[in-house]
């Protein structure tokens, strides 16, 4: 039983770490401010959920678990407010978003532009 | 003492005891009682303008909506993760567009806008006139999902009296 709990919590912790790294790489890789916020919200949501889930499995039925659940609830309530404030401020100050069409449409326009002399 | 205030104080006492874990230190218990009294006073002032009764039904419907939202968050996170790790197979197509919203109450609108922001891949930018919401999405597909209106109708269903 102990072993199963340990394995499960390690899977959750490792998954959380993976999504944290995903958020970091997305922040570096995406082209503009707005799309970087999307990468950051991966870290805010699923990474936090999995890491706190793994920690809850380690803590068992204690006060620590209650606190961890509250930490998760507060994170999930406040992180949208934070990212909305960021995006809204950027939009208000006129940061231009990089807008790209859907990939199939883009390949068509590329063909069209290459056919032009 | 109204029933609302009694309910609030009982809830705050439970909340304080759970968070602190100190059950027998007289100094800390006094400080806790003081902070609970202050919070209850501030909340009763808010209650005069925005009564809790207007949102109790939504509060009871929140757990069901929250569990649906959790599954949505996991799905959309996997979509964004694919865009991060395999950019050539899942290219991004950032989109900025207005999405209609059918909520009537302030709380409903707030829940909808926050749910959009919470799910990775979509961020609500600002309210537009005429009950619309300006949304930035990472891919055109996630914008289409949002325009299909499943989340919108779920939040609106929570508002029903």
Q: Can you tell me about this structure?
A:
The complex is a heterodimer of chains A (117) and B (161). Chain A is mainly alpha-helical. Chain A has one domain (2-115). Helix content of chain A is 84%, strand content 0%. Chain A contains four helices and no strands. Chain A has helices at residues 2-29, 33-59, 63-92, 103-115. In chain A, helix 1 packs antiparallel against helix 2 (33-59) and helix 2 packs antiparallel against helix 3. The radius of gyration of chain A is 20 Å and the shape is elongated. The N and C termini of chain A lie far apart (70 Å). Mean pLDDT of chain A is 85; it is low at 108-117. Chain B is mainly alpha-helical. Chain B folds into two domains: 3-49; 54-159, no CATH class. Helix content of chain B is 65%, strand content 12%. Chain B contains six helices and three strands, in the order H-H-H-E-H-E-E-H-H. Chain B has helices spanning 3-20, 26-49, 56-85, 106-118, 140-148, 150-159, and strands spanning 95-100, 122-128, 132-137. In chain B, helix 1 packs across helix 2 (26-49) and helix 3 (56-85) runs antiparallel to helix 6 (150-159). The relative contact order of chain B is 0.12. The chains are: A mainly alpha (117), B mainly alpha (161). Chains A and B meet through helix 1, helix 2 and helix 3 of A and helix 3, helix 4 and strand 2 of B.
Key phrases:
heterodimer, A: 117 residues, mainly alpha, 4 helices, elongated, disordered C terminus, B: 161 residues, 2 domains, 3-stranded antiparallel β-sheet, 6 helices, 65% helix
Topology overview:
The complex is a heterodimer of chains A (117) and B (161).
Chain A: H1 2-29, H2 33-59, H3 63-92, H4 103-115
Helix pairs in contact in A: 1-2, 2-3
Chain B: H1 3-20, H2 26-49, H3 56-85, E1 95-100, H4 106-118, E2 122-128, E3 132-137, H5 140-148, H6 150-159
